């Protein structure tokens, strides 16, 4: 039963959060949503509500005060979800790496699916990254909707869901 | 019984580009008190400028304070360091720097107008203005190689020259933009549904503008003549045809109109600069290390940008102090919110064009 996958693929809603960026990538996301680059032709629409979103666009190296809000927003987005890191400083910390109050990239806090480089990331790259994110969203959606056996089901879902994956990864790092 | 109700706005909200949190103290629908929290994007740029980076690199670091007015940040820092090094740029460099600052002002103002329209509920106008902004971004990309973070200004000059092809492109795109700005002025002035959201809403009176020290388009919309471009002599703004834009009513409509008329003025200045570009080198060797203290003021799209740079003859600077326009304008902004309806809050906020990454640095 793959009932929801086509709908998710055709209308991925975007949640945009600024975790300490310089605004450069944010205005490029606005420009990409505008008429010239027209990100909305993929069905994407910018929404302010995490509970209705599929794709999480994050800009900026995570600052000390925005990290709780970042994780909070991430946990409020329903599965399946895809996280896209827009800009060099979101990927690695970029020019802000090692500064006071900066946490050097978002993958210390939430699992990232697509990294978009560039300072500031150009609208072409943002569109490219979003198309990649759509493919990942489709596979994740199919994995969730696949029928499964009753016994051993918890283990099987656990490997599919990204949040539990992250938990395993953190434990592995500690060892 | 408590008569007021507290409504939060932010830190993540559909009408906000950047994280800022307001706590509105409301009596029914009317706002009677505001509390703002702006420090969500504090990154410690000032400290890093005096610890991590050498003075030649700092110009590119402070550009990352804000993506919208990046060029004014690197320009003010560069002017301050050039003062300390005892170097005066030639006319061609000054004119090329001014050209980029004015192009940046045009695209920043257009983004603000689009955002104000979106927050007033006019989504189609947002799309229209974003489409009309693209020619300016094309010019910037052609001149500097990047759309937003163009590291165009360096100590001792600029990094790329203006070729005749580029001049033709600038004239073509600015002519197209100029017609559309005229149409936009007509629309903002006469559209009935826009006037419901703009005219007479979010008023800052002239007395309050004086009392709370407003600056930039916020002050000029209230009739307070404050513009660094007419006060400072670092850049020859008088020579390229700068005129101050003043409105009197101080509401959102007046702020939009200040921005629109400044776009027209900036287009005229850009044309003048391209037509009358002096001959000269675009990059000159500057020797020495900064020693002493210098203060520079530059008019950013949002108001006065203030830089203090202190060096002691070392590669690493002693102090870089950045005072940004939004930070200075917060008291005046808080005053405007009081007495207006809660439903108008996003449109009023967008009309200030606040820049949180500037404020928190």
Q: Can you offer a commentary on this structure?
A:
The complex is a heterodimer of chains A (175) and B (361). Chain A is built from 7 helices and 5 strands. Chain A is an alpha/beta fold and 175 residues long. Chain A has one domain (5-174): Rossmann fold (3-Layer(aba) Sandwich). A 5-stranded parallel sheet of chain A has the order 2-1-3-4-5. The longest helix of chain A is centred in the last third of the chain and has 23 residues, at 123-145. Chain A is globular, with a radius of gyration of 16 Å. Chain B is of the alpha+beta class. Chain B has a single domain (45-335), classed as Cytochrome-c3 Hydrogenase, chain B (Orthogonal Bundle). In chain B, 50% of the residues lie in helices and 14% in strands. Chain B has helices spanning 45-51, 55-62, 70-85, 91-119, 123-144, 164-190, 192-198, 206-211, 217-222, 228-231, 252-275, 325-337, 345-352, 356-360; strands at residues 5-9, 21-27, 30-37, 153-154, 157-158, 291-300, 303-312, 319-323. Chain B has a 3-stranded antiparallel sheet with strand order 1-2-3. Chain B has a 3-stranded antiparallel sheet with strand order 6-7-8. In chain B, strands 4-5 form a two-stranded antiparallel sheet. In chain B, α4 (91-119) packs antiparallel against α13. The N and C termini of chain B lie far apart (41 Å). The mean pLDDT of chain B is 85.
